[in-house]
Design goal:
Distance between the termini: 40 Å
CATH superfamily of the largest domain: P-loop containing nucleotide triphosphate hydrolases
Largest sheet: 9 strands, mixed
CATH topology of the largest domain: Rossmann fold
Shape: globular
Structural class: alpha/beta
Number of domains: 2
CATH architecture of the largest domain: 3-Layer(aba) Sandwich
CATH class of the largest domain: Alpha Beta
Helix content: 40-55%
Strand content: 15-25%
Number of helices: 16
Strand order of the largest sheet: 2-1-11-5-10-9-6-8-7
Number of strands: 19
């Protein structure tokens, strides 16, 4: 179910019924998609009419195409001005958006997309900007650097989108975002996409949007990801590694993500798994960006079987075919649990998520997660023979 300006409607459509150009339809067909997601079916027509949009939708519901499709449709390939700007909170999300937009531009000759983010030499990005892209995807801090250097001009921008707006503002980018928006005087429309609509998000909307269309995607049963969730109660932390390796091996998971709460633990776990012959690499904030990008590329191609990640490093990951997620450490916050398990069960595939509980503190946190999410999480424990069984079968 979806709400548009407070009115509940069913919003389903084939892409072919949205009045899109042949080039865009060919690009979407190449991706293997036919049915627009609810947020896409709701947002695309309003974006095509240059309306302002504020959309609340869960992770993994196709938000990038919801603004990306009309954005590419509106581009004038003959112009060398920046016409569209997308702001994202993390480098990983910015790069993912760039990749999705480039896929959409596959049959739109002359449309160029550039990604600006910290951790990459700015001179390389200046060279890319000299190729006169019409679409810029950027993190706020790096875009501000380019604006100060006068290496990018935004005076011709027609469409601005803030993706994961809540996360971006939570991370302290409010001042940068407002300064950037203040420089875009003649925009025709603005979109804000967010998993939650916080007070900070509404403040930005009130100041910078004009009578926005409010879209809310409700996580009803048919739109919820198909994720089987398990809680595994262990007798101590020493059992975690053995359990993780056994589940990956016996479950025959080809692509999995294991989440840790700290960078140090992520490094340790990746090393321990590698010693056991499991192809594994870690990503976290202390690892150089170019190495993280190479690791993610290997993971996508199947050269790395398990990715060990911290929550911050995993923001913006959009990999459709993760077989399983393992919460090696119980997350400190409910939001992180939801975000972690949302890495699997995407694109209407079945996913599985395991959370390891090895002490009283982790048990209390997991109880809170179960109570607040109201999710159907099956509790497992090893029996005397070493078999993993539902707790009720052991008792």
């Amino acid at each position: 179910m979806i709400e548009i300006n407070g009115e509940q409607i069913r919003c389903q459509s084939d892409y072919a019924g949205l009045g899109l150009s042949e080039g865009i339809l060919r690009a979407i067909d190449k991706k293997g998609y036919t049915q627009a997601t609810p947020v896409q079916a709701a947002a695309i027509p309003f974006f095509m009419e240059w309306k302002d949009v504020i959309a609340k939708a869960p992770t993994g519901t196709g938000k990038t195409f919801a603004f990306g499709i009309p954005m590419v449709e509106h581009i004038d390939p003959a112009s060398s001005n920046v016409q569209c700007l997308i702001l994202a909170p993390t480098r990983e999300l910015a790069l993912q958006i760039q990749e999705e937009l480039r896929d959409l531009c596959a049959f739109k000759e002359g449309v160029r997309v550039v990604c600006l983010y910290g951790g990459q030499p700015i001179d390389k990005q200046i060279t890319q900007l000299k190729k006169r892209p019409q679409i810029v995807v950027a993190t706020p801090g790096r875009l501000m650097d380019h604006m100060k250097r006068r290496t990018v001009r935004l005076d011709k921008v027609a469409t601005v989108v803030l993706d994961e707006a809540d996360r971006m503002l939570d991370m302290g980018f409010v001042r940068d975002v407002t300064r950037i928006l203040d420089q875009i005087k003649h925009r025709k429309n603005m979109g804000m996409f967010s998993a939650t609509i916080s007070r900070e998000v509404m403040d930005i909307s009130w100041v910078y949007q004009r009578d926005p269309v409010e879209i809310t995607v409700r996580p009803v049963e048919e739109s919820k990801p198909d994720i089987q969730q398990y809680r595994i109660d262990l007798d101590g932390r020493t059992q975690k590694l053995d359990t993780l390796c056994a589940l990956i091996t016996h479950g025959e998971y080809e692509r999995a993500i294991a989440f840790c709460n700290t960078k140090n633990m992520a490094d340790r776990l990746a090393g321990l798994m590698a010693m056991r012959g499991i192809s594994c690499q870690a990503i976290h904030g202390d690892i150089q960006q170019r190495i993280r990008e190479k690791t993610l590329e290997k993971f996508k191609k199947g050269a790395v079987r398990v990715l060990v990640a911290t929550d911050v490093a995993a923001r913006g990951l959009d990999i459709d075919d993760v077989d399983a997620v393992f919460n090696y450490d119980v997350p400190d916050e409910l939001e992180n649990y939801t975000h972690r398990i949302g890495r699997t069960g995407r694109a209407k595939r079945h996913g599985v998520a395991y959370t390891f509980v090895a002490n009283i503190t982790e048990g209390i946190r997991m109880d809170d997660i179960i109570r607040n999410t109201k999710a159907d999480i099956q509790c497992l424990k090893y029996d005397a023979g070493g078999c993993l069984l539902p707790i009720e079968e052991i008792q």
